[in-house]
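The authors assume throughout that readers already know how a fold can be written as discrete tokens. In essence, backbone conformation is discretised, so a fold becomes a row of integers matching the chain in length. A single example would do more here than another paragraph of explanation. For illustration, here is how one protein appears when written out as sequence plus structure tokens:

…
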Amino acid sequence: MNNFAANDKVEEIRRASDILDIISEYVSLTKSGRNYKGLCPFHHEKTPSFMVSPDKQIYHCFGCGAGGNVFAFLMKHENLTFPAVLKKLAAKYGIKFNVSGNSKEAEQIDTVYKINEEASVFFSAALSKTVGKKARSYLDERGIDELIIKKFNVGYAPDSWDSLSTYLSQKRFSREDIVKSGLVVEKQDGRGYYDRFRDRVIFPIEDRDGKVVGFGGRTIGTAKDGAKYINSPETPIYRKGKILYGLSYSKEHIREAKTVLITEGYMDAITAVKYGFNNIVATLGTALTEDHLKVLRAYTDNLILVFDADAAGVKAVIRAWETIAAAGLSSKVLVLPSGEDLDSSLRNRGSEFVQKQISDAVDTGEFIISELVKPFDLKDSGERKKALDSIFEALSAVSGVYNIAIYGSFIAEILKTDERIIIEAFKSVNRSKRLGDVKKDNELPERSKNVNSLDAHLLMISLASKEWALRVFEAIDTADIEDRLLSSIAEKLKVSIQDKDNIDIGSICQELDETSAGILSEIAFRKEEVIDIKKSFDDCINMFRRRQYIRALEMNKAEIKKALSNGNEGVVEHLLKENQRLQFNIKAKF
């Protein structure tokens, strides 16, 4: 601390930073005597045990033991360094703050913010110029008017390899800092750089305070680089698992409506605002995370998921619901017509239709159950058993007799089975889960190692060095790791190596919960078992990709069965060709 700022300056910032005001931005608090209480943002609880004392300027959770002053809260909640917290609070309260000593990281963060602001100005100006005519036409076709463009600061990245990098260089930013912002990419041969966003409509991504932390780009015509949408990579200020697009605009609307609509894309969110649905946010190329829920919980506990009406959308709902249920929250699903997303439904059917769908939103668990049984012939007892197994697997996050009774009754109705049998089966699953919770410190690591040994082995390889970690994460998506705990650990590891020369396991453990930290530390000790790391890497990646092909094949077979039952011969023909392609790849490549 002394190397970064004088103690008197730190104390000045702390005194100015009223802890009640700060925490109220993240947690819904109610007065309780001389203190304030609310649901802890660091662990799941139904009865508030998180207390804030304005007199003492401290917080403490009597459930999980988290506590400290305003600096500790922001460091823990926002995953910020101490210097970054000081700079954030100094800026908020207008305190002049001259950094010294070990300030390189804080200065770098400040510089990336400035680069993003300049880039946003550049993109906005480009949209209004002749070079942006094609982009303006595209936005007009999508119904995005000037008011919405200004509200979300929509811009355009010219069809040029270096227009942005040249502009930023003229603004006296160094090449190194521009690259760290993620806006410019170094060529693979190391002989130059190029702009990441080219010939794309640009959507600035802001944090909850309205500061630009990244960008999203949507191609106007056919994607020259094969991707319709691309986002900024993770940077010192952009963590996609923590940021919700549109929150800086919608947060007060969410608080007022006491409900939030959660969609997948920025186009859905922008169109929704145009049609009057202001209480909406979008995830950015990632599943809904615990950190997203922590942010939203400050404004509402009522969540409505608005994902695409296709197989991928259903899968996204299942993943989101598991995270939501684990956090002790409830949610509903806005059901859209097949093949549509929120953007197309609003443009084709209007706001009244979507408002009715919001009013008729169904419980997420019931939605998932209804979708999961569709591929099965429920007249066949064997098929009903498979359907029930599929439901139990997806609803593994459900706990408590109350929820069991609700879903047991609903499942029984769909499967035309005695409700008591379903409820007893649920109770049995729930009983096993409770026993597992009692022994989770011992059993969860074993489950992660044995049930998902391939994933655990990949983590061992990634812990060998930053270079091997980068190779692993270039080859796989952490979201495709089957075990949720290992997937979370892998994502933390991936984030941690962005700005560090080496892997600091102790630092990563500090960001994990007790169970996950235990798993990571054990994997770290076991990494010495990897003797030939290159061979292990090659073998594991091959096995990982084979597993993905097999998973895709299984999903394709389910779609074929569904199409056959619907008599859709054209779809069946297409799916059969895809089935042959997948089988060929499995045989040819593995």
Notes: The chain has six domains: 7-92, 104-231, 247-371, 373-438, 442-530, 539-589. Residues 539-589 form one domain. The chain has 27 helices and 16 strands.
